[in-house]
Amino acid sequence: MQTQATSPSAALAAAAAVTPDASRSMALLGRIAKGWGQRAQVKQRELDLAYDASRPDFLESLLPFHLHPLYESLDERTKGRILSCGWLIYNEKTVAIELDIVSPACHDILYENVPGLDTEWAKEIVCETLVDEAYHLLLVKNANRLTREVRDLSHIRIPQFALVRQMQEEQARHTPAWAPMLVRLSTAVVSEIFISDYLHQLSEEESIQPLNRATVAAHRHDELAHSKIFAELTRAFFQALSSSQKSFFAETLPKSIHWFADKELDLWLDVLKQLGVGQAGTIIEDSRQINQVALERVDYSGVIQLAEDVGILDTREGRSAFSHAGLI
Question: Cα(275)–Cα(280) distance, rounded to whole angstroms?
């Protein structure tokens, strides 16, 4: 979709009309903000668990090729190194989401670039979210440093994630000054709604490294609140958008779902080659058709409900976009 240019000041002008739904969202965000001191993991005791090198670092069923015969035929040491890389990738995706998507979206709100979110409660809860995200970066970077040291994986480099690449490519396709911001905001909303579900399985998995499980559980504790926060922020800002911005956001939201669900096979091919897995190309190419975008990985019902709540699915453009994406 190629859209016509609109000045940032004109985009902000729509924020003057505050709907009852937006007011209710701001009131709820205020209550969530007041509870941050008791809820936030950065306010709690630091994790203090010993590293158990006898436990796998990651869950095999989360590998996008775990049922491939060539993977199954690998020796246990190689499988163990692949699982450890799975943990590194899992954490580095958190880093990418926090640094390239969520934090910049929070900065857009704090700079008052997002219509309808120039209230003090919105800014306070965004500041709290940024502190949470910084702590999550510390958690996962520490976890990856330890894993690299213990498993002798200091040489492994993780390429760019498809989630970030596809978002940036979409941003570059549009000329209005507000378009890249709305693409990033859409991706942040989807990521924050999805990520607690993404973290759920490892946070309760008893078979893996206890420190890894505790790291994910601490992260997920905050993200359960962030999911609600970003849903309410969306309810507040969507009604303040212009008609062209609403259509643009409605068309971008289902794309963001597909970007998040991508199984990152190109990235995995690069990592398997770094590990010296001889038939890495065959394993990945055989997995590509069924795994390139795997919507069964994510529960997107929360985004569908949000789209219904704010009226996206009441519009022709919104229903068409979600239907074209195979989401309704």
Answer: 9
Assigned token pair, 213: 């499980």
CATH number for position 160: 1.10.620.20
Determine the Cα–Cα distance for residues 211 and 45; give it in Å rounded to an integer: 14
Element (H, E) at 123: helix 120-151
- Domain assignment of residue 320, yes or no: yes
Most distant CA atoms of the chain, gap in Å: 63
Spatial distance between the Cα atoms of 94 and 71, rounded to a whole number of angstroms: 26
Residue 247 lies in a domain: yes
The partner residues of 193 in beta bridges, in order of sequence, read none
Euclidean distance between CA atoms 232 and 241, whole angstroms: 15
Q: Which of 285, 242, 295, 249 is nearest to 265 (CA)?
A: 285
Q: Cα separation of 231 and 194, whole Å? A: 11
Residue of 136, 233, 221, 244 whose CA lies nearest to 189: 233
93 is a domain residue: yes
Structural domain count, the chain: 1
Nearest partner of 266 among 166, 148, 171, 160, judged by Cα: 160
* Global pTM exceeds 0.90: no
Residues 219, 96: Cα–Cα separation, whole Å: 15
How confident is the model over 141-164, as pLDDT tens digits? 999 999 999 999 999 999 999 999
Indicate whether 213 belongs to any domain.
yes
Angle at which helices 280-291 and 265-274 cross, to 10°: 170
Burial class, 149, CB count within 10 angstroms (exposed 0-12 / middle 13-18 / buried 19+): exposed
> Tens digits of per-residue pLDDT, 17-60?
456 677 777 777 777 778 787 777 877 877 767 789 999 999 99
In DSSP terms, 293 is beta-bridged to 262
Domain that holds residue 235: 19-37+65-324
Long-range pairs, 242-245, Cβ under 8 A, ≥24: 242/6, 242/10, 242/11, 242/14, 244/3, 244/4, 244/6, 245/6, 245/11, 245/14, 245/115, 245/178, 245/182
